[in-house]
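[Automated response] Your request has been received and processed.

Submitted sequence:
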Amino acid sequence: MTTRPLLEVRHLVVEYGTGEHAYRAVDDVSFSVPAGGSLAIVGESGSGKSTIAKALVRLLKPTAGEVLLDGTDLAVLGSRELRPIRHRIQMVFQDPYGSLDPHLSARDIVAEPMAARGERSKAVRRKRAAELIDQVGLPTSALERKPHEFSGGQRQRIGIARALASEPDVLVLDEATSALDVSVQAQILGVLDALRRDTGLTYLAISHNLGVVRALSENVLVLRSGKVVEQGPTEEILANPQEPYTRMLRRSALEPTTMTGLKPREMVRGIAAARAAENAAAAAAVVA
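Generated structure:
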């Protein structure tokens, strides 16, 4: 008996504009993710990654195709029909500051989705918000502080806690660590990994960083100019990419000048070894 994927995208098309001026940002993209599984969509800026993320959570309406969440096609639902389902698929945004209300405390930011879902008891909302803030690794002293009082990594933790407050089945991570330096990225990836183990969440990660992809996902889809280039198990694709574009992305991920923040000595050694292996493989290919 075949188990139906929790999230399935079929022949997704997203266009901006209409008629002869329409720009096709996503062109016939299909993939699926099982419950508790993880998929990363990777590609350069402008490849259509974030457009897919917005289509999944219906921040924009697909031009064509299906977005099936547990068998229900979100792409065709009206706003009223979407309302009771939206909580099941939530997004953590790239900008951990711009996505948080600067006038609210951390506790109120996290509690807000519970009120939207109909939880009337303020005491219950506040208690649950405190539990979620603790779950993402922030201290009790963070509860009454406002976004500007936190570092970027702390703000991203609040964004994750807010998404969890909706009790989602699927978490869409739209470049959720790209605004952070390397050491803080590692912390957030650790939080996300622990949450998935503890809760069974399904992840769809949008990234241009193959290091993040390796840490976060079991499977990867490579996107270029809105089209799928290749997809498969993460380790297999990254170890032996079949397409020149994927090989280019891998080389970029191993380039020290593209990284921000402090680089531990072990990381520098690893980068050097990986680059040497890349160069040796390229030289062998030329000789062959």
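Summary generated for your ticket: Residues 35-58+78-239 form a domain with the Rossmann fold fold (CATH 3.40.50.300). Confidence is low (pLDDT under 50) at residues 255-275.
If you did not submit this request, please reply to this message.
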